[in-house]
Amino acid sequence: MKEKYINLFTDFGFKKAFGEEASKEHLISFLNTLLPEHHQIHELQFCNNEYQGATALDRKAIFDLNCVSATGEYFIVELQKAKQNFFKDRSVFYATFPIQQQAQRGDWDFRLSAVYTIGILDFVFDDEDSAQRDEVIHRVQLKNQHHQVFYDKLTFIYLTLPNFRKTEDQLDTLQDKWFFLFRHLHELDEIPPRLREKVFLSLFEKASIARFQPEERQAYESSLKYYRDLKNVIDTAREEGREEGREEGREEGREEGQRALLHRLITLKYGVLPEDIVLKLAQADTEQLRRWSERILTADTLAQLFADQ
C-alpha cells in the first residue's frame, strides 16, 4: 500500500477518524464548522445505532450523536457518509430514526429536540441547476409555498466535497482545513504547515497506516478495495447515463444510466450474469431497478436479489 494516511471516504477510515471515543475531538471540531452558533457542540455522546441500516456497511457509515450546546440545550446530529444510490431517499429514511427515538411513554406533548443530518458526499448532485452545481454546502429545510421555513428542527446539510477545490495555501478557515483533509488526506506524504494544529496532529496520528495492527491494516485494505471498486463502477455508469441522456432525453437517459449502474454492480458482486437476468434488467421499470439497487448490498445470491420477481 503506497498511501501513508487513510482515505476518509472509506467506511474504515471514516469510522477511525470520527466514529470512536478517541475521535471525539476531531468530530466536535469538524461538526462545529457546520452547525449554527446556538448549537455549537460542548459535549457529545455516541448513540447505539445498531437498529439503523439495512446492512452492516450502512451502520459503519452512520453515527447518531447526542449533543449538548454550551448553554445546555440538547440536540441530535446524525452524521452520514452518503452512498450514491438513492442517497436522498436513504438520507431522509435514516433521519427518521433519531426523531422516532425521542418518543416517550405515557403522557407526552410531542416536543422534539432539533435534529441535524449531515451527509458527506464524494460525488456531486446530478439534478441541481447550474447556479448551485458548484456549491460545496447544501442546507435543506422543510418550507412552505412561500419559501418560509415550516419546521426549523430538522435540517439536512449535504457536503459535495468534489466541489471543494482550494489548495493548501488557500486554507484560511477551520472548515476549509477539514474539507481539504476529506479530499486529500490519503494523498499527503507529510503534514502541511497550515494543518499543524492540535486537532489535526491528533487526526494524522490516528490516520497513519504505519501505526495499524495487522488486523486493522487488513480491514482497511478490504474497505479501500470495496470503495474503489464501487466508486469506479458507479462513476462509469453515471457517465454512461449522462451520455444516454444527451442522446435520448434526460429522463430516459437517467433510467438507462441507473440500469447500467445496476448491471455493473451485480456483475461485480456475482460475476457473469445468465441470460434470464440480463433480460430482467433490460425489461425492468424504474421502480424495479430502485428495489434491486437497494437490495444488492444485502443479497448473498442472485435468487435473493430477485426473490420478489
TrEMBL record:
It comes from the Bacteria. Pfam families: PDDEXK_2. InterPro entries: RpnA. This is DUF4351 domain-containing protein. It comes from Methylotuvimicrobium alcaliphilum (strain DSM 19304 / NCIMB 14124 / VKM B-2133 / 20Z).
